[in-house]
Amino acid sequence: MVYLHHHVVWAWVLVASQVRISSGPGGQLQGRIPAEARPCPAVPRRYRDAALASKGKKTKNILCRPQNCVQEEEVNVSIYLNCKGPKQLAKNWHVCAQFIFAISNPNDGTCYLQHGGKARFSDSTQILGFSKFAELDKLLGPDDSRVKPIIENHEAVVTAFVQVFKDETGFLWHDFVNYDSKKETGYVSLKNHGGAGYLNPLLQLLFSNTYLRKAVYQIPTEHDGPDSVALTLQRIFYELQTSDKAVGIAQLTKSLSAWKSLDVSQSQVVHEFMRMLQHELQSRTKNTSVDGFFQYLFVGKCKRYIKCINVDHESSQEENFSDVQLDIKDFQGRPFKTLQESLKAYVAPQKIDGDKKHYAGDDHGLQDANEGTVFIEFPPVLHLHLNRFEYNFQEDKQIKIDDPLEFPSKLDLAPYLDESADKTANWNYRLQGVLVHSGEAQEIKYFAFIQPHPQSKWYKFDDDRVIPVTAGEVLKSSTNVHMLVYIRESKEAAIRTTITQADTPTHLKSLLQQEQRLHEQKKKEDEERHLYLTTKIVTEETFRVFQGFDLALFDDKTMPPSDVPTFRVAKKQRFLDFKSTLARDLGYQPERIRLRPLLVPVDRPRAAVPENDQALTMEVIRDTAMASSTQDLKLYLEILDPEHEAEAAESEERQVMIMVKYFNVSDQALSGIGHFWVKEGQRVADLVSLINARMKFPKGSRLKMYEERRPGRIVLMDPNTTFGEAQMLDGDIICFEIEFSDEELEKLGRQHAYLDPVSFYDFLANRVLVRFKPRHTNMAKMIEFDIPLSKTLTYSQMAHLVGKRLHRNPARLRFINSEQGDPHHVIRRRGTVADMIESSDNDCINNILFYELLDLPADEVEANRKVKITWTGAHNREDGNYLFLMPKTASIQDVIDKLMQLSTFITFSKNSTRKIKLFTFHDGQIEKQFSGEELLINVADLENLHATELKTVTTQYDPVAMLKMLQFVKKLNVDGTNHQTWLKTVESILGMTTGKVNLLTSPDQTIGCAEDLIIKQAIAASVDDALVLTVVEAESGMEAFEKIQKHWGSRNKQVMIMKEILQTRFKICDATADIGSHFQVIKNLAGRLFKSGFELTKESFIGLLFHLSLPRLDIPPFGNISRRIDARPGGAATISNDQLVQLAQTELQKFRKNRKTTSATSNSNPTEPSSSTGKSINRGPQTSKPCHNCSH
Question: Model pTM?
Answer without folding.
Answer: 0.55
